[in-house]
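Hi again,

Forgot to attach this to my earlier email, sorry! This is the prediction with iron/sulfur cluster bound. I've pasted everything inline since the attachment limit keeps bouncing my files.
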Amino acid sequence: MMKPNEIVNDLKNMIPEAKCELIYNKDYELLIATVLSAQSTDKGVNKVTEKLFNNYNLEGISKANLNELEDILRPLGTFRRKAVYLKEIATLLLENHNGIVPNDRKYLESLPGVGHKTCNVVLSNLYDENCMAVDTHVTRVSKRLGLALENDDVVTIEQKLVKKFAGYSLKDLHHRLVLFGRYICVAKNPKCSSCLFQEICKYNNKKLH
Ligand code: SF4
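Structure tokens for the complex follow:
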């Protein structure tokens, strides 16, 4: 088993820039983009949010006709539900926090469409809170690297990563695990020949998925 610093260093070598690939300029734009990213790719979300944020500010979203929002969100999965979420989130944020996304996990997780993972993404990126969002890429990579067991759920994986990488930037680790999973350790036909984890990898050594 590799030590945490070895894993962090190898990840840094393969993924030099730890960054969020969702495009945003305002705090509420990150929150909205993250809500939209459920069951959708960041690339798809960025195309949609470019149009959305060019046409609507937060107040505009809160007052928008649902059909108009649905038209913009249509390329994304579950776009009708997401349109409802966006209107409600915009309305609540304006009413409760003058349109500012607060550093308040309980409040954020009470918003429609905002779950634990979304909250971790938002709080780590906006407020540098040291928390780990576990998405599909983090899950797959963690299992392949033996950082989690095959049948671990996302809550268990999060707990294991937080414990193992205590003292490291979980925000940077999250971004690098996501990018590593998105571009190298992809679900099908991962690019193992250019990976520094070949010796410890369960998938590479045992052909486990
Ligand atoms: S060796 Fe292949 S499957 Fe294993 S972590 Fe690297 S890219 Fe992923």
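The pocket of iron/sulfur cluster is lined by residues 144-145, 184-185, 190-192, 195, 197-198, 201, 203-204 (CB under 6 Å). The two ends are 19 Å apart (CA to CA).

That should be everything now.

G.
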